[in-house]
């Protein structure tokens, strides 16, 4: 779907009128292309005294091909500002944030990155817990102040998970996180597994079998494409009515198509048997299938309520139970849910949808400890306004509000959701468990 307003802002007339009228001017976001440099400029790395991450992070960034500076350079534009705040153990030390960022925050380049690294507050004690929790307010505000498509993230890294944070750092600093803004990510809080880098960071999913539900179009098709790009063998699943589109997607990614109604009573058994017989199991399960039946609660029928809750939540729970009970999901497997910002903030006319998507977050919270014991992970994405056929049908005024009410001032693309899911699926993300990351350009509604 084309964002005509954003196109207008790039015309000579738009460039003249938009600033005069004080209208939003959405930046062109830098999105990932194979072979491109990780950042458009060097990363400036700083640390509060006593920080435990800076040395490891410097080596990880260098391994990723990022030029790392530790001293500010006059007239230098930075691709990223990275600050190790793990040494902040008292609220008074929060001044270290100002000391580092104040002189250089205006030097962040277009589509640049700001990353603050901290210790999970729940794993800290006393005043350190207070100081580390304060980092969230700082990062969320910086995300709203940055311009030209730049983003800010907070990554909490548990003590002992320093090496396990590399995949997350690579993701949040790269163009793959273009529409992820002002998010809080936790690494290594559910026990810290052994984490090793993939044989190839360009093909991290090589040798993996990935199931993507709702794969015939939109976000599901984008997930299939990104997984295939990253080396996975993709099983694309959707209902029989979407069979023709599903086959096209599967053929395009060199995968297989499975037509199955996941709400059928025997669907978990059929799916488990298919995955075991055809592939010997599955490594990655993405619960992307979902429907809407929008009505205000007073006009919402029982059948519409039940249909949405079944597809968007209870069918996923039944599949998880079956794949885990029969060990179809391999050791070290990944389960990834697709929630929604509606599940966080609610949305007019979507009581059933918002309930189901909040339930997906609950699914992640409930299952994360068990998946950690199994050697796997479960996480979720929560998309905001994404340019799809579904959002194209939204009335114009509501559609424009959805696009503009975010720090990035525009809608995201299906690939933005897919890139975030691929980060979760990366074998090097084994210490990322129980997270819910919004892919919403820091929507101004919700938490």
From TrEMBL:
SMART domains: PKS_KR (SM00822). Residues 208-389 form the Ketoreductase domain. GO terms for molecular function: oxidoreductase activity, acting on the CH-OH group of donors, NAD or NADP as acceptor. InterPro entries: KR_dom, NAD(P)-bd_dom_sf, Sc_DH/Rdtase_CS, SDR_fam. NCBIfam families: PRK08261.1 (NF006110). Belongs to the short-chain dehydrogenases/reductases (SDR) family. This is 3-oxoacyl-ACP reductase. It comes from Amycolatopsis pithecellobii.
């Amino acid at each position: 779907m084309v964002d005509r307003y954003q196109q207008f802002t790039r015309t000579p007339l738009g460039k003249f009128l938009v600033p005069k009228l004080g209208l939003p001017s959405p930046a062109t976001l830098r999105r990932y292309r194979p072979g491109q440099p990780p950042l458009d400029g060097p990363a400036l790395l700083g640390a509060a005294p006593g920080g435990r991450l800076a040395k490891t992070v410097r080596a990880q960034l260098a391994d990723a091909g990022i030029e790392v500076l530790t001293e500010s350079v006059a007239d230098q534009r930075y691709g990223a500002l990275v600050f190790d705040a793990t040494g902040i153990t008292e609220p008074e030390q929060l001044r270290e944030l100002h000391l580092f960022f104040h002189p250089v925050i205006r030097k962040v380049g277009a589509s640049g990155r700001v990353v603050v690294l901290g210790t999970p507050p729940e794993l800290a004690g006393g005043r350190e817990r207070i100081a580390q929790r304060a980092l969230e307010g700082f990062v969320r505000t910086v995300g709203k102040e940055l311009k030209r498509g730049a983003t800010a993230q907070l990554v909490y890294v548990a003590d002992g998970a320093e090496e396990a944070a590399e995949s997350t750092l690579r993701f949040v600093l790269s163009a793959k996180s273009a529409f992820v803004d002002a998010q809080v990510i936790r690494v290594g809080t559910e026990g810290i597994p052994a984490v090793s880098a993939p044989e190839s960071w360009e093909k991290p999913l090589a040798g993996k079998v990935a199931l993507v539900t709702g794969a015939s179009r939109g976000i599901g098709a984008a997930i299939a494409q990104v997984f295939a790009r990253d080396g996975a063998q993709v099983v694309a699943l959707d209902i029989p009515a979407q069979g023709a589109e599903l086959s096209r997607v599967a053929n395009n990614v060199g995968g297989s198509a499975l037509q199955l109604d996941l709400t059928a009573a025997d669907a978990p058994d059929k799916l488990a048997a298919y995955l075991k017989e055809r592939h010997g199991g599955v490594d990655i399960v993405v619960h992307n299938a979902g429907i809407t039946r929008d009505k205000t609660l007073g006009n919402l029928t029982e059948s519409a309520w039940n249909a949405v809750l079944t597809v968007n939540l209870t069918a996923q729970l039944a599949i998880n139970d079956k794949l885990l009970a029969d060990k179809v999901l391999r050791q070290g497997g990944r389960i990834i849910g697709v929630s929604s910002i509606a599940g966080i903030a609610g949305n007019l006319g979507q009581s059933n949808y918002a309930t189901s998507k909040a339930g997906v977050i609950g699914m992640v919270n409930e299952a994360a400890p068990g998946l950690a014991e199994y050697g796997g992970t479960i996480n979720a994405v929560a998309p905001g306004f994404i340019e799809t056929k579904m959002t194209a049908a939204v009335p114009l005024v509501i559609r424009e509000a959805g696009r503009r009410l975010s720090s990035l001032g525009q809608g995201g693309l299906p690939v933005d959701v897919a890139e975030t899911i691929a980060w979760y699926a990366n074998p090097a993300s084994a210490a990322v468990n129980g997270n819910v990351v919004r892919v919403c350009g820091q929507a101004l509604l919700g938490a």
